[in-house]
Design goal:
This protein has eight helices and 15 strands. It has about 350 residues and is of the alpha/beta class. Helix 6 links the parallel strand 13 and strand 14.
Length: about 350
């Protein structure tokens, strides 16, 4: 009997300890009362434009710009929020960190903590569109996450139903990448054990939808009003030279384009660059914009992404990736475009 009681007691102790660990983890994510009071005070002066930036080297030119006047910073949930103004507009700037998880999480934190009326996302990107050049600033009308796949088993083909497709979990609507098309040496009958990956839409649960009833989204549109305002960027004078010896051959321009894509992949591969351009007719390739777009879609908030092209996503020379040279110039051009966009609102 004593052994049974002891075992039960130990079980409850372990359960209580487990709950304490879980609760302490939750507490770590909740702002302290002091921080909550500061957030409440900040929100009394809202609403704000939220500006989400992937990395410090992309954010710093905006923070250091004479167009940005900072009033305060707030550190919460592992993020630093810079509160101030750009021109006459109240803004909150936050760095997300690299890739989709960081971008989506940071955007949701921004929207959960603060009174935000719209989101601007900017940074650098790879370029899949041969009609554009390094240094150009792109404003896509649609964004898609191209890193969500259904990986088809070897032996099945385009006419075969995908696993769980009949449940509505997956679809063949958006096409696939056939690894056999990239086998060396190539021939018409070449195949590859990796077979095909099929691009999938995201499951989304909008705030005005029915809880636990999923919707799907692949191409996420930016806010149409924001997109029309972005036309004013086409007359911008953008930076061409890094210094007196390193200059682009063409003067960069700002252009409105139809599509951009994101995934947790840094693309430095000419074959994939050409494939994804041919498949989806895209221009910028990055690692964050679609995540921000999807969060704003679910929260039903206006959103736009502005991406300056820093490299050719593997389409340049074999010696180097141009991002190592031109990322600073591209970052500055993106900031120039963002400031002008905000002034045009």
């Amino acid at each position: 009997m004593m052994k049974i009681i002891t075992a039960v007691h130990c079980t409850w102790v372990l359960l209580i300890v487990s709950l304490m660990v879980d609760l302490s983890s939750v507490d770590a994510l909740i702002a302290s009362p002091k921080v909550q009071r500061r957030i409440h005070k900040i929100n009394r002066h809202g609403p704000y434009l939220g500006i989400v930036v992937p990395n410090a080297f992309e954010m710093d030119p905006l923070l250091q710009s004479s167009s940005f006047n900072v009033s305060q910073t707030l550190d919460v949930a592992g993020r630093r929020f810079h509160i101030g103004r750009v021109d006459k507009h109240k803004v909150i700037i936050v760095m997300s960190g690299l890739a989709m998880l960081n971008a989506g999480l940071t955007t949701q934190l921004l929207l959960s903590f603060f009174e935000v009326k719209g989101v601007i996302h900017y940074g650098i990107a790879g370029n899949a569109n041969s009609s554009l050049q390094i240094g150009d600033v792109t404003v896509p009308r649609y964004w898609a996450h191209t890193g969500l796949w259904n990986w088809q088993r070897y032996g099945d083909g385009p006419n075969d139903e995908l696993s769980l497709e009949s449940n509505g979990d997956y679809t063949r609507q958006y096409g696939y990448l056939d690894f056999g098309n990239f086998t060396i040496p190539s021939d018409q009958n070449s195949s590859n054990l990796l077979n095909n990956v099929w691009y999938q839409p995201e499951e989304v649960f909008p705030v005005n939808g029915t809880p636990e009833v999923r919707q799907h989204a692949f191409w996420v549109p930016v806010d149409e009003h924001y997109y029309q305002i972005a036309k004013s960027l086409e007359i911008l004078e953008l930076q061409k030279c890094l210094n007196s010896t390193t200059c682009l051959s063409n003067t960069p321009k700002a252009v409105l384009v139809e599509r951009g894509v994101s995934a947790n992949v840094f693309v430095d591969n000419a074959a994939y660059r050409n494939f994804v351009y041919t498949k989806f007719s895209i221009s910028p390739i990055d690692m964050e914009s679609a995540a921000v777009a999807l969060v704003c879609l679910e929260q039903r908030l206006p959103f736009i992404a502005i991406r300056s092209l820093s490299d050719l996503a593997g389409g340049g020379t074999s010696e180097s990736n141009q991002a190592a040279v031109f990322s600073g110039l591209a970052s500055q051009n993106a900031v120039t475009a963002v400031i002008q966009f905000i002034k045009s609102l």
